Amino acid sequence: MTDELPAPGPQDALTDVAGIRVGHARVPGERALSGTTVVLAPQGGAVAAVDVRGGGPGTRETDALDPRNLVQRVDAIVLTGGSAYGLDAASGVMAWLEERGRGVRVGADPAQVVPVVPAACLFDLGRGGDWRARPDASTGRAAVEAAAASETGSPVPEGSVGAGTGAVAGQLKGGVGTASLRLASGTTVAALAVVNAAGSVLDPRTGVLYGEYGAGEPPVHPDPAVHAEAGRRLVEIQEARRGSARGDLPFNTTIAVVATDAALTRAQAQKLAGTAHDGLARAVRPVHLLTDGDTVFTLATGQVPMPPEPVTALNDILAAAADVLARAIVKAVRAARGAEGPGGAFPSYSELYGPS
Question: Which residue in 295, 252, 304 sits closest to 65, CA to CA?
Answer without folding.
Answer: 295
